[in-house]
Amino acid sequence: MSKRIAVVISEDPFVTARPVEALRIALGLCSGDHETTVILLGRAPSLLMENTDEIVDVDILEKYLPSFKHLSIPFIVEPGTAMDAWSDDFSVTTQTADEIRHFVRSADSSLIF
Q: How many domains does the chain have?
């Protein structure tokens, strides 16, 4: 039976490698029979933007991003989040803070980074 998994990333990818590691984990969870959704908060949406040179572990990030595009893994961001044209290749939707809270509560499992 497939589970709904929410991976919430709110740490700053310009300060720590944890957001890139969280994406790697999320991708691994997608290899099973799970419905995995990645929620990007704070500065974490920068992971899906073109200018990623200053992100910690950018070389690892660049290896995994094509798989997120190919598999159309859903991402959720908050309203008003600045995204660039390069981000359009990803499956990104906008939800309010209340909708995000409800989504995380309704998931079978949540990983918070």
A: 1
| Helices 58-71 and 18-30: angle between axes, nearest 10 degrees | 30
The answer, as to whether pTM is greater than 0.85, is yes
Q: Provide the residue range defining the domain that includes 57.
A: 4-112
* Pair 7, 29: CB distance under 8 Å: yes
Angle 80-12-42 from CA coordinates, rounded to 5°: 20
Residues forming beta bridges with residue 109, ordered by sequence position: 5
In CATH, what number is assigned to the domain containing residue 107?
Answer: 3.40.1260.10
Query: Is the C-alpha dihedral spanning 10, 23, 15, 17 positive or negative?
Result: positive
Judged by average pLDDT, the poorest of 4-13, 77-86, 88-97 is: 77-86
